[in-house]
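Renewal narrative, Specific Aim 1. Our central claim is that a sequence can be written position by position from structural information alone. The example that follows is taken directly from our test logs and has not been curated for this report. It begins with the structure tokens describing the chain, in the order in which they were read.
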């Protein structure tokens, strides 16, 4: 879901990922923070929700909106994966993804449905492993280089 037209999203996905195999990608136009828009995406029946906003504030609001819907439906198995750019926003994002039903954990970071990818940590780990493993830099160069694609 994004605020750009659905057809433009589908065209971009088709260009970047021509063969998706048995993966079904559903595109919708709307806001990731609007409950009505999220219901149109049928997040209760999907397996995973990916929140990849370029703004941590929007990401946290999106996590909150999704968790509000998922919290009400106990039978949903949907899982949220999200990227957080600033280390200072990690705790807030984890609290937003809190799925504890016990009031004693109301402001905890109990997250059975949320996986956060901390961009700073991820990039640091890639660089570190590239330095430590002979030949790994060539693999990462091949993966992240969009030459000839």
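The sequence written for that structure reads:
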């Amino acid at each position: 879901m994004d605020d750009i037209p659905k057809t433009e999203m589908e065209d971009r996905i088709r260009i970047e990922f021509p063969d998706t195999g048995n993966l079904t990608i559903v595109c919708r136009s709307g806001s990731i923070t609007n409950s009505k828009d999220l219901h149109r995406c049928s997040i209760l029946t999907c397996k995973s929700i990916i929140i990849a906003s370029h703004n941590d504030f929007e990401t946290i609001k999106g996590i909150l909106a999704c968790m509000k819907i998922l919290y009400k439906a106990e039978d949903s198995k949907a899982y949220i994966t999200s990227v957080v750019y600033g280390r200072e926003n990690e705790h807030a994002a984890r609290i937003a993804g809190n799925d504890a039903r016990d009031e004693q954990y109301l402001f905890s970071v109990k997250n059975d449905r949320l996986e956060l990818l901390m961009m700073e940590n991820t990039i640091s780990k890639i660089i570190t492993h590239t330095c430590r493993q002979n030949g790994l830099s060539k693999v990462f160069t091949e993966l992240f280089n969009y030459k000839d694609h």
